[in-house]
Amino acid sequence: MISPSFHLLIKHCCHNQWRSLLFRTIIVINQRQLSTIENEKRDSQKQEKEIFVQSQNNLIQINTFTQKDLFITAQKIVKDTIYSLVIITGVVTLGGVCYLMLHELYSRETPHGIYKEASKICLENTDVQEALGIPIIVHTTPQISSMRVNNVRAKTFAEKGHRSMTVSFYLTGKERSGVAAVKVEKNISNKFVYDYILVQLDQPWHHQNIIQVYPNLNPSSSTTNISS
């Protein structure tokens, strides 16, 4: 029969073993929890670092893209500005050329304008009509059939403080031909007025080789008046 003291001893030993086992279990659990917390903490720090690094990389990429976009935009603006200036310059140049051409064709104060007016005066002069024989052809080159561009032969110069100009052209009629010489000068109104209009004949007519169209010494020989 087991004595009460032995039984108490056994009970006490079992209790101590149970307490020791429980203590070790608690320690192991605490160690695991601490390890898990540290791992989570390290993972959290690592994740934060990765997020920070990624944010920095994204910021660098954004800055790089922004600078690149600004550079491309600046290049486009410069190109558009250059193209616009080229187009504007071309339009202005074309407009200036068109203005000069129209002014040369339709303005009286040009060699072409004086040529048109003076040739009309010569054609309406009765002495010129009788001397050359109608019909009369007016041309700016010696040969009527010349393929050259009909440029008016003119010379401008200063005389006595006034701008003067001489114009010459050719007249060919049925009987004779001649060369018209015209001289004009600017008046105080900045308009050309005639100094003289002469026609030199290639063959004598009524014992004369030159017909003075203006100043007209014979009022009945012309139907056109020129005011100076």
Automatic annotation (TrEMBL):
Q: Does the keyword Cell membrane apply?
A: no
Gene3D superfamilies, alphabetized: Mitochondrial import inner membrane translocase subunit Tim21 (3.10.450.320)
Keywords, alphabetical: Membrane, Mitochondrion, Mitochondrion inner membrane, Protein transport, Transit peptide, Translocation, Transmembrane, Transmembrane helix, Transport
One GO biological process term: protein import into mitochondrial matrix
Q: Where in the cell is it found?
A: Mitochondrion inner membrane; Mitochondrion membrane
Annotated GO CC locations? TIM23 mitochondrial import inner membrane translocase complex
User: Per UniProt, what is the membrane topology?
Assistant: Single-pass membrane protein
Q: TM segments?
A: 82-102
A Pfam family it matches: TIM21
Does Cytoplasm appear among the keywords? no
Family to which the UniProt record says this protein belongs: Belongs to the TIM21 family.
What does the subunit comment say? Component of the TIM23 complex.
Q: What does this protein do?
A: Essential component of the TIM23 complex, a complex that mediates the translocation of transit peptide-containing proteins across the mitochondrial inner membrane.
Protein name stated in the entry: Mitochondrial import inner membrane translocase subunit Tim21
